Amino acid sequence: MFNKITTAWALHRRTVTIVTLVILVAFPFLITDQYIVTVATLGGVYAILAMSLNLISGFMGITSLGHAAFWGVGAYTAALLSTKLGWPFILTLIASCVVALVFGVLLGLPTLRLSGRYLTIVTLAFCEIIRTIETNWKSLTGGATGITGIPKPEIFGYVFNTPMKIYFLVLVLCILTYILITRLMDSRLGRGITAVRDDYIAAQAMGIKDSRYKIMAFVISAALAGMAGGFYAHYMSFISPLSFSFDQSTLILSMIIIGGLGNLTGSVIGAVLLIALPEVLRPLMAWRQVIYGALLVVVILCKPSGILGKVNLKHIKQRELFKRGKEKEGEVKA
Hints:
Layout: H1 2-11, H2 13-30, H3 34-59, H4 67-84, H5 89-111, H6 116-136, H7 138-141, E1 147-148, E2 154-155, E3 158-159, H8 163-186, H9 188-198, H10 200-205, H11 210-236, E4 238-239, H12 246-259, H13 264-280, H14 288-302, H15 313-333
Antiparallel strand pairs: 1-4, 2-3
């Protein structure tokens, strides 16, 4: 059944994309409960984070437990620039990307020569260091109380101050992130990243410098996480260190594992599932976390590679077209 669905999807990919976009655009008009639209907006933020993490954990093969740190760096950058210096939303969003990118370079250059569990531990330590700074540098970050009064997003005088407006803004950011990473992975850089992940020794033999590709993937991922943080700060109007803890890093990693490593659509599906499930199970209260955990275990047991893990729509389409061509050729000969 699953193979039939993915085959139909691969053969009619453009139609599926158009229908999906229509549904996403119509969603806030069809839903009367504004709280659901707010949850969908939060799902969009996590979708950006999941796609950006998938760039290094899925496509590059680096397990990172510190992605929330870049998210936090971007959020605090936007919060400080907007509240203390009065910068507009567009500039704070760009600054969030740039500052997170710089932190990605500072972390990546000395550590990406490491591999496996050692690199994972370093990213975990980095996340805790950033959280500690956010908590204890009270004169800058406000400490545990955080930063309040962050203005809502505003672009050329248009204020995004309703759930529907915020939803469409994060939808645009999600689409841009998806397109950027897709184009990146279809480029020479993307092929190099995949080659390093699959066999870095063979890649080096072919003249591909693995450290160069690792750092490039790492900083792009960090910049996208910083953008998500900048948007999140303006969206929530309040941030604190609790929002960017190690727990958030594991949540984002869980999203891409469940959705499928190396699959951007899977990242979005994983983010939506892990954000929506707790809300769907809210009426059960006492049993909510138990059912939530059990469902995750079932998904992992049934699909160890993730919902869309190892699903390559381009290859499926080529395979089906080749199969149909062979069948037609056989009919002609008959």
